[in-house]
Design goal:
The chain contains eleven helices and seven strands. By secondary structure, it is an alpha+beta fold. Strands 2-1-7-6-5 form a five-stranded antiparallel sheet. Strands 3-4 form a two-stranded antiparallel sheet. The protein starts with 7 loop residues before the first helix and ends in a 6-residue tail after the last helix.
Length: 241
């Protein structure tokens, strides 16, 4: 499901290539399946992606971003605009998006505070005709190791359920002694389970074990956001798939 929040007229003002792309999609030169695959690929990425035009106006947002931008996230989707939750984040976000759109500068910005802090990448997307740039906002992960990735890794190496719980805790930065307290077992049991996982995975240390998990491609869950009605089809039929 390709969720565009821009009308074709708005897209024409900010980047004619968007309208050209919509016309190309409607033509017979490109099989419809190609565009369906492209939209599906964006939604299968387990990193939140938001595409902006003309400041904070949202052109596209993928499924992962809709899930990430909950009430706790320092960024909020308000109508068709992306806005920071805290007043102190307004200027840094505006400066980063403006620098990307006008000067082609990339920036890493940290927003929010305390446990709700989150980092985002602000990336300029060059227009083919040297026109105005779109700006891509990639949301950072709020967890080092995704739960589904850990589960898939564990199954692949024959790691037991008890060992998997230990692995998840290690990936979250919890030391073995604290894991033992949390699980109500002896530290020796935890160390034995860590040793077993190291043998199964070939990891030379706890750090190496955690690194194996942290660099895994994120695995997206089956459940995903679906709109009650297609906002895209109401505003820009050419972009609705």
């Amino acid at each position: 499901m390709f969720t565009s929040l821009a009308t074709s007229s708005a897209a024409a003002r900010f980047n004619p290539n968007v309208v050209a792309g919509a016309q190309l999609m409607a033509s017979e030169s490109v099989p419809p399946a190609v565009w369906q695959w492209l939209a599906a690929a964006l939604d299968e990425l387990d990193y939140g992606i938001v595409l902006l035009f003309d400041g904070m106006n949202v052109v596209h947002i993928n499924d992962a971003a809709r899930v990430e931008l909950d009430e706790e996230h320092p960024l909020q989707l308000l109508g068709s605009e992306l806005r920071p939750k805290l007043a102190r984040d307004v200027a840094p976000l505006h400066d980063a998006v403006t620098a990307a759109a006008l000067r082609g500068m990339r920036r890493l910005v940290t927003l929010g505070k305390d446990a709700q802090r989150a980092s985002i990448s602000v990336i300029p997307l060059e227009a083919a005709d040297a026109g105005p740039r779109a700006v891509l906002v990639v949301l950072g992960k709020r967890a080092v190791c995704e739960s589904l990735s850990v589960q898939g890794f564990a199954r692949g190496y024959g790691i037991t359920g008890a060992e998997t719980r230990v692995l998840v805790a290690l990936c979250n930065g919890v030391p073995p002694a604290q894991i033992a307290l949390q699980l109500g077992v002896a530290v020796s049991t935890i160390r034995s389970q860590i040793g077993s996982m190291r043998i199964k995975t070939g990891a030379e240390s706890i750090r190496a074990l955690v690194r194996q998990v942290s660099v895994l491609p994120p695995v997206k869950g089956v459940l995903r956001w679906k709109p009650a009605t297609s906002f895209t089809s109401r505003l820009c039929p050419q972009l609705a798939l």
